[in-house]
Fold this sequence. Notes:
Layout: E1 5-9, H1 16-25, E2 29-33, H2 36-41, E3 44-47, H3 53-62, H4 65-74, E4 79-82, H5 84-87, E5 90-95, E6 98-101, E7 106-112, E8 120-125, E9 142-147, E10 149-151, H6 155-158, E11 168-174, E12 176-184, E13 187-190, H7 198-212
Parallel strand pairs: 1-2, 1-3, 3-4, 4-13, 5-7
Antiparallel strand pairs: 5-6, 7-10, 8-9, 11-12, 12-13
Amino acid sequence: MSTPRVVVLDYGFGNVRSAVRALERVGAQVELTADKTAAAQADGLVVPGVGAFAAVMAGLRGVGGDQVVDRRLAGGRPVLGICVGMQVMFAEGVEHGQQTEGLGEWPGVVDRLEADVVPHMGWATVEAPPESVLFAGLHDERFYFVHSYAARSFPLHDSPAEHLTPPLVTWAEHGDRFVAAVENGPLCATQFHPEKSGDAGAQLLRNWLDSLR
């Protein structure tokens, strides 16, 4: 069985080193780069992200990452977004009254969590659909979250186009429900950090790698 080749996109934001190490530990051949050709040709592309939605979008556009993601997905090539790397897949982010256009792979808005304590920081369980590939073998496991913003609805899941398979949406709660992960054909993403989520996160990354083979 061949070793999947994975590029972790290096655009100036994200917990890139820990993501690289976590993927290497579960069997991936990993390259950390902003090179568009390498990112386009890899078996899998990981888009990490920490910090502000607008800054992450500026960083992505600065290295042509928005084009790489769009072209990979148009060709059915797998992409995994992590934390703000998931948030920017949505149409829009709203932070401190500032609206920023996202990559628009999914409809919907990322905005501030409505909870007594923000940021949401720590371990939490998630509610994954039974047919999930990412969460196979991970029932009742906890994952590590660090975020103040999230998508609190997923319009494409509520009313998918008739000819498309509905995305698999995993939910979590902090104050109210928010999207914790999405599996949508070649595009998968998690709001939590699998690279910081111990054995459960490692298994999730292994499940994603297995889907690349």
